Amino acid sequence: MIVGILKEIKVAEKRVSMTPAGVVTMVRNGHEVLVEKAAGEGAGYPDAEYVAAGATIIETPAEIYAKSEMVMHVKEPLASEYDMIREDQIVFTYLHLAADEPQTNALVKSKSIAIAYETIAKDNGSLPLLVPMSEVAGRMATQEAAKYIEMPQGGRGILLGGVTGVEPATVVVIGGGVVGVNAAKMACGLGAKVYILDMNLERLAYLDDIMPANCFPVMSDAVTLRKLVKEADVVIGAVLVAGAKAPKLLTRDMLKEMKDGSVIVDVAIDQGGCFETSKATTHDEPTFEVDGVIHYCVANMPGAVARTSTRALTNATLPYAVEIANKGWKQAMQDNKEIKLGANVVKGNITFKAVAEAFNLDYTPVDKFL
Ligand SMILES: NC(=O)c1ccc[n+]([C@@H]2O[C@H](COP(=O)([O-])OP(=O)(O)OC[C@H]3O[C@@H](n4cnc5c(N)ncnc54)[C@H](O)[C@@H]3O)[C@@H](O)[C@H]2O)c1
User: Fold this and answer.
1) What domains sit in the chain, N to C, each tagged with a CATH number?
2) Which residues contact 168 (CB under 8 A, 6 or more apart)?
């Protein structure tokens, strides 16, 4: 199969959908890989590394779309690309269609095979192509908090781990899923006193087993949260309620009771945020202050560490991309139901229920095409 790797065109997006190491694997599997000029530059991979890996560099996205049987991106195709997508071409990337009607209509019109990273799911319901970015965001959340709590950044001037004779900072992580565990791990590693809150008792039991002694898994409720945020130097919001906006757990009146110069990081901002005072920010201006508390609310945190994120993403997407390229999309979906769950739009039909429902459009099960 001819696989095309497109350069990202979303503002400030430096990731790329395949590393040169990924190209080597694709080529070993007998496929031809076309890489758009400078696609990997932002993530630290010059064109020469792709050529050495066996790829061909292509000047324009139009040529990539014209020549490839499968195109890969990190972010969704933008309006400038809609007319380049060809009938029967596989588009494999994050799509997030339920929040994007113009793109949904464009993919329907194109009659392509649109497979979304974010809806590929394992039997236990986990989303293997979202996990790596949640890991990145979780680990980064603590790193950013450690930075912004320093005095030159306006913070209260606390070292998260303390030192001999000086107690460590208190970090409260709300949500004990992938983001929360990774944030807590980093904070524990630095030596902070960490509370991690979740509502799922089984999850709390698991956290109790695996987390180090300076981490205290606690049932999440409004009374406990109010008590803990008063003590906190850092609060990290990492909740997810599937298919819904994030609940506003840290309210304005709780915020008023927090210490001056403390830092709150709302990782759930991409789902509306779980702090009442959150509003989305960008890497150019990541923070703002309300009631003396520094808010960090960047909606695409992994973009700031594009080298790590690109490798983590390729590690997760490559096995699926190789299977699709080796077998073709129909056979790959017949053999692997995780890939089948990724089918969002197939030959002009919406094959993912939540997307059809979001826009009151007809839903067609993908089995009809297999
Ligand atoms: N800003 C970014 O760049 C970025 C990157 C990755 C993920 N995210 C977001 O981070 C959030 C968390 O993602 P995840 O992968 O960890 O999800 P996850 O499903 O693995 O974990 C979410 C956890 O929240 C818990 N939860 C739900 N309601 C709660 C409540 N009221 N109190 C305490 N815990 C509660 C759930 O039980 C679950 O354990 C999501 O909103 C996701 O979209 C943002």
Assistant:
1) 2-124+305-369 (3.40.50.720), 131-299 (3.40.50.720)
2) 159, 160, 161, 162, 190, 191, 192, 193, 214
